[in-house]
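Q: Hi! Curious about what DNA-binding NtrC family response regulator looks like structurally. Here's the sequence.
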Amino acid sequence: MAANKNARVLVVDDESDVLFAMKMLLRPEVKEVITEKNPDNLLALLGKQTFDVIFLDMNFKSALNTGNEGLYWLRQILAKDKEATVILITAYGDVELAVKSLREGAYDFIIKPWHNDKLLETLHQALQARQNKQKGAAGKAGRAASAGSLAILGQSDALQEVLYKLEKIAPTEANVLILGENGTGKELVAQALHQKSFRSGKPFVSVDVAALTDTLFESELFGFKKGAFTDAKEDRAGRFEAASGGTLFLDEIGNISLAQQAKLLTVLQNRQVVPLGSNIPVPVDIRLISATNAPLYEMASRNEYRKDLIYRINTVEITLPPLRDRHGDVEMLTRHFMQLYAQKNHKPVPDLAPATLRKLEQHKWPGNIRELQHAVERAIIMAEGNVLQPQDFTFSPMELGGMAQTAAAAFPDAPLPLSEIERETIRRTIERNNGNISKSAKELGLTRTALYRRLNKHDI
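A: Let's find out. The predicted structure is below.
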């Protein structure tokens, strides 16, 4: 991470120890570090010189005594210099206040006590963003939580709360359980947690555990020795061992059997695996991130899921909002996917007709971001002109929420349970696509693996 030796930084905090620590940390990175204990002197300082980045405490022992002093001074700074890059410092894990500060123009925030590496990373990202803005390269794409090559796009309040939690949790060793509907981006959040952690230089290993049969579960996760079973022609490390030192992401963890839950719990408790065909335990050092759209607590109350495993995997929970609750994010995501798929398919990037945007914003998106992604890709491929029209976006019965109506029309005298509605919709979609599983999965907004699981579940 290259230092910006021409940058000038201001740190405003009423604690002398904080000012000293910040100055010692930042001085090797930038041209000048100015510290100030009294926020009343802020405007005078800004009148004398321009600062590339301002670190501002959110809570001062002042006459304001509202707990929102940082927001007050943030407004004062931005009124003086609307281009100022302000990073707020707070000792309080107040999601609402932090999100409000971002809405009002703060670049980012850090939590006391901070990790030096994380603070310096935030500084350099802020300096880079300021430089891009001055070059006119930043535009108005909205706030993104960058994690290496990853970008979680969105500016809605619902997403900002997730981003705040992500920033706070990522540098810790806490096991994280990510909850949310299908298509909300759970794996992307898991990757961001890894890339923003101190394990980022180590492996990130992802496993869809619901796709593992009972016979594959142990060999894939825990490994095996040569001769352990018929096809075991050589030793092979499992996913736990492959992820050692880094992060293991177990997707669809709500869909594993009780027997698999017991085996997984034993490994997590002992922090070691025993490969198939061996009696020698192998220690593993992993940070666990899990994800599911299943109601684990309801399942536990029905004895379908082990409570002790839930406690083990969810030191912290992150619940991803469905796209329909992310007000204002549909346009940003649509334009992002338009650019992506236009480039992929060697086409010019089109524009959106106002009526098209209204249609997209009114749609409920039951398949969430994955559904939007597929809808945009279809529109890019099939559109005739350089402006996407409402008719360029078509939705399957499942996407329109019409499967219930279809099933109800077929069985008017008896309301169907949800599982039967799903079964009927899948069956008709596959028939319409002449048995083409890939095409049917895409139309339903599912992965091939997820569709195969549902075929097995409904005995289709």
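A: A fun detail: The CA atoms of residues 108 and 419 lie 44 Å apart.
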